[in-house]
Structure formats: structure tokens, C-alpha cells
Amino acid sequence: MTNPIEALLAEKGVLLADGATGTNLFAMGLEAGEAPELLNETAPDTITSLHQNFVDAGADIILTNSFGGTRHRLKLHHAQDRVHALNKRAAEIARAVADKASRKVIVAGSVGPTGELLVPLGAMTYDEAVDAFAEQIEGLKAGGAEVAWIETMSAPDEIRAAAEAAIRVGLPYT
């Protein structure tokens, strides 16, 4: 499994990733407590514009709008049954922007924490975490993400679960 980030880094020496997706979405009208992932369906033009702005600013890597895209996070918004569809759509939007760029732009599928604590501190087992991340990453891969971007996790077991899920799905990860 080739990691496209490593390949582009070898070619360019330095890569610029996008950033402050949430901050930018709040500036674009997202309200506190709203799920950014739902914008993939309700406001795809907003997400397209966000990605395009990052590409125009020189980003080599754009992250999908899927940070809270596991069933555990989406259940807070009654969308836990739409994990695959929301993540696929997130990747499709980013992929369309990347494909229009005049240079190579990598689509990285943003995979954030579940918000749940793993056993023994919480109720979620390691295998349940792997399954939740795999469900999300399958959607991201189906939509055109080239790599799973595992981010903002503090629990080593949760990081390992996300990495194992990426391997299971067949997507390189960083």
C-alpha cells in the first residue's frame, strides 16, 4: 500500500496541508453544536468553496469534512445511520476540487476521535472502535480519499484502532 503523502513529499520536499477547517466553517456560518459533516449534504457548495480556498492558497493536502464522521459522533445529531454516505460525500467533494487543480493535490480522509472512552475507562471495546473507524474509512475510500488522516486523538488505543481500521479497509494512513 503506497502512501501518496510520502510519494509527494519525496518529490517536493515540503508539503502544505490545509487547516482550521472548523474555524473556517464557523466563519462561513456554521453554528455551535451543529455537525459540520451534515454540510456535505445540506451545503456542498460551502464545503467546495472551503477546499478551493485551501487549494488556491497552496495546500498540497486537503482534508475531507469528516472529522466527526464516526457513528459515535454522528449519533449526537441522529445521523449514525448515514456514516458511509456522509463520509463518501465528504471525500467526493474534496476529490472534485483536487481533480480540478493544476497540480497534484492529495485528498486525505479526516478521521477524528469517536468521543467515547475505551475499556477500562469507558464502555467501548477496542474491536468496536476498529469497526467504527472502518465504517467511516470505507465511506471515505469510496468517495476518493487517498489516505486516512488520523488526527486529534489522545488515547494510544484509539489511535491504534483507527490505524488498524485503515489497514483493514486498504487505505494508507498518517
**Largest sheet features:** 3 strands, parallel
Segments where pLDDT lies below 50 for 5+ residues? none
Number of folding domains? Answer: 1
Instruction: Name the CATH superfamily classification.
Output: Homocysteine-binding-like domain
Order of helices and strands: HHHHEHHEHEH
Classify the fold: give the CATH topology: TIM Barrel
What class would the helix/strand composition place it in?
Answer: mainly alpha
Per DSSP, the total helix count is 8
| Beta-strand percentage range | 5-15%
Radius of gyration: 15 Å
What is the average per-residue confidence, as pLDDT, rounded to a whole number? 97
N/C terminus separation: 13 Å
CATH first level: Alpha Beta
Shape summary: globular
The CATH architecture designation is Alpha-Beta Barrel
State the helical fraction. Answer: 40-55%
How do the strands of the widest beta sheet line up side by side?
1-2-3
Number of strands: 3
In short:
By secondary structure, this protein is mainly alpha-helical.
What does this structure look like?
By secondary structure, this protein is mainly alpha-helical. It has one domain (1-9, 61-174): Homocysteine-binding-like domain (TIM Barrel, Alpha-Beta Barrel), CATH 3.20.20.330. Helices cover 50% and strands 7% of the residues. It has a three-stranded parallel β-sheet. The protein is globular and about 50 Å long. The model has no long low-confidence stretch (mean pLDDT 97).
